[in-house]
Every structure is written in structure tokens, then in C-alpha cells.
Amino acid sequence: MLNFTDLTGLTSVAVAISAACLLLPGIAGFTRIQRTTLLAVVFVLALIPLGGIPLAAYVRGVSGDLSITMLVLLCCALLMPSLGCNTEDIKARYVLLTLIALVALMLYPLALGFTSFDPYRLGYGDTWFIAALLLIALSAWAFKYYLIASCIAMATIAWAGGWYESDNLWDYLLDPWLAIYALFSITLRVARIFSNK
Q1: Both 113 and 54 in a single domain?
Q2: Residue 76: inside a domain, yes or no?
Q3: Could you list the residue range(s) of the whole structural domain that residue 178 is in?
Q4: Rounded (10°) angle between helices 146-160 and 87-111
Q5: At a CB cut-off of 8 Å and minimum separation 6, what does 33 contact?
Q6: pLDDT tens sequence across 72-127
Q7: Are 182 and 116 found together in one domain?
Q8: How far is CA 72 from CA 5, 42, 89, 93, 104, in A?
Q9: At what angle do helices 176-195 and 68-83 cross, to 10 degrees?
Q10: Is 175 helix (H, G, I), strand (E, B) or coil?
Q11: Counting Cβ atoms within 10 Å, is residue 120 exposed (0-12), middle (13-18) or buried (19+)?
Q12: In a domain, 77, yes or no
């Protein structure tokens, strides 16, 4: 029987597989109902066992659990075509991705031992780290970057509740796939800006 962590892990990977369908060629030409139906069917198929294990479990075996921040971005990607998106939403998303890219460039090299300081250890409940996150979330809220504030709040709440097997807050805030996506998106956006000049 699946425990809560496995259930949420498989569901999050199924959401990621569904969101990946939005990248398929021609999907933009689908009506809202066609797109919603496709995403729902793919989500269900990802959770149906094939040979005793669902497709989502195979993907999860490679990717691990996705961070809460990644889940928020995936849900936004799934809901955006239905709800519509304005310039402010896109700007907030790129601010979040820039923040993620900068944190990833700092966290992963240091956590791999390039210096004696390991910021990953802070995720085990360091009071100053949690206070800094609170300050960042409040600042983001004050500047109307609600997506950043929401991601930090949801990740912290999930960590406090022991949502995943990990006891480290960094695993709720960031994962390698999210870091790669953020770095790729920001690089692509900068390249577009310079190519338009």
C-alpha cells in the first residue's frame, strides 16, 4: 500500500508529465476543452500501473521527488491556458526563475564541497535561514510578487508538516530539475533580449 509520501510523489510526477504535453507541437491550436481533456487523460495514464508500476513511478525513480516550488510552477503552467495570463504574471514568473537560478548557482557548488561552508545544512531547521526566508517572502509580498511569496510559504508549510521523506527545507524549495529549467529559461530570455537589440 502506498504511503502519503509515495502518493504525493507519484502525483507530482504525473502533473509534470501532463505539463510536458503543453510543449507538444500543435497544442496551442487546441481548444480549451481539448487541451484540458488531453492533460487529464495523460495525468490518469501516468498513474495506471504498467507491469505493476505506473509510468510516474519509473520517472520518479530517475527524477526523485519534485520540490514544492516546481509543483507550483507546473500547476501554474497547467492552469495558465485556461485562466489566461497577463504581463505581470509573466514578469513575476521570470523574477522567480531568476531567483531560483541565482540560488542554484550558489547552493549546488557550495553543497558539493567547493568551500568549507555548506548552505545545504541550513535547511535542517536553522533559525536564521528560516528568518531570511520569511523576510524574502514578506518582501516579495510587499512588492506584489505573490508567486515568490506563495512558493516560499507553501514549501515551508510542507516542510514543517513533513510532507516528503526529506527533513531538509532546501528539498522543498529547490530541486535539480527546477534549477536546470530556471537556468535554461533565463539564458534563453537573455539571449532573446540581446538578439532583439
Answers
A1: no
A2: no
A3: 85-197
A4: 50
A5: none
A6: 888 887 776 555 555 567 788 889 999 999 999 999 888 887 888 889 999 998 99
A7: yes
A8: 17, 19, 13, 11, 18
A9: 50
A10: coil
A11: middle
A12: no
Element (H, E) at 54: strand 53-54
Helices (H) and strands (E) in the chain, counts: 9, 2
Does one domain contain both 114 and 156? yes
- The C-alpha cell at 96 is 522567480
User: Do 104 and 183 sit in the same domain of this protein?
Assistant: yes
3-state SS class at 143: coil
Beta carbons of 34 and 76 less than 8 angstroms apart? no
Closest CA to 40 of 18, 55, 23, 11: 18
CA distance 63 to 103: 20
The H or E element that residue 30 is part of is none
**pTM, full prediction:** 0.85
| Domains: count for the chain | 2
Q: Both 182 and 108 in a single domain?
A: yes
DSSP β-ladder status, 49-50 and 53-54: antiparallel
CA distances from 9 to 5, 28, 89 (A): 6, 28, 27
Does residue 189 share a domain with residue 111?
yes
